[in-house]
Design goal:
There is one protein chain. By secondary structure, the protein is an alpha+beta fold. It folds into two domains: about 140 residues, Nucleoside Triphosphate Pyrophosphohydrolase, CATH 3.90.79; about 60 residues, Arc Repressor Mutant, subunit A (Orthogonal Bundle), CATH 1.10.10.10. Helices cover about 20% and strands about 30% of the residues. The protein has four helices and nine strands; from the N terminus they run ββββαβββαααββ. The strands form two sheets. Strands 1, 2, 3, 4, 5, 6 and 7 form a seven-stranded mixed sheet that branches. Strands 8-9 form a two-stranded antiparallel sheet. The protein is elongated.
């Protein structure tokens, strides 16, 4: 059996952090959750939730812990995005960040600042404040990854309630892609993927005719669409 030994290093080594990009759709726009930093560097600037990896946890555990400590949010599906490792990305020391992104419905969460976060708030992607560190770059890469995954996964359904109409689904796609989609082609393409099932119920909005409602066949996980 391996013998536990104290950590000892004979050469310089970097610190490791995790940062989390949490997306939602609010007020008909794609938005991201930011925290206002309490401590230097970049004190009082807005940043992504995140922090340093503890010696007794893996990266995903760190990401979940930091998200909970700084925003009060827990239990989300996190997907690893990219590793940011520019030598000068943090003025304190050499820091490598493993980044994650996640999606959620905004009406199910009530972010609350904690730990070393002064405030937690949603911001539209089109109107972000100046961000600390290289977090603007991280958000942009996450936005690009999210838009790309619409074409081959069921990730968009994390932004929808359990049952929804095809119009609601199309609105999610259009918000993420920031473009209008042809209604007929969109519906034909979605239904051909065999990822939805009809609920047998209908939804009425305003004076429009009732619309069929659907649910995802496998709602508990993000699936790759072949």
């Amino acid at each position: 059996m391996p013998v536990n030994q104290p950590y000892c290093y004979t050469h310089p080594h970097p610190a490791v952090t995790t940062d989390i990009v949490l997306f939602t759709i609010r007020e008909e726009s794609l938005q991201v959750l930011l925290i206002q930093r309490t401590n230097p560097p970049f004190r009082q600037m807005w940043a992504l939730p995140g922090g340093f990896l503890n010696m007794d946890e893996n990266l995903e555990q760190c990401a979940n812990r930091e998200l909970l400590e700084e925003t009060g949010i827990d239990g989300l599906y996190l997907e690893q995005l990219y590793t940011f490792s520019a030598p000068d990305r943090d003025p304190r020391e050499r820091v490598i960040s493993a980044t994650y992104f996640a999606l959620t419905q905004s009406d199910t969460l009530h972010p609350k600042a904690g730990s070393d976060a002064q405030e937690a708030a949603w911001f539209p992607i089109s109107g972000l404040p100046d961000l600390a560190f290289d977090h603007a770059e991280i958000v942009e890469l996450a936005r690009q990854r999210l838009a790309a995954k619409l074409n081959y996964s069921t990730i968009a359904f994390q932004l929808l309630p359990e049952t929804f109409t095809l119009s609601q689904l199309q609105a999610v796609y259009e918000t993420i892609l920031d473009e209008k989609l042809d209604k007929r082609n969109f519906r034909k393409g979605v239904l051909a993927r065999n990822i939805l099932m009809e609920t047998g119920d209908y939804s009425r909005t305003g004076n429009h005719r009732p619309a069929k409602t659907y649910r995802v066949i496998n709602p508990t996980r993000v699936e790759i669409i072949k």
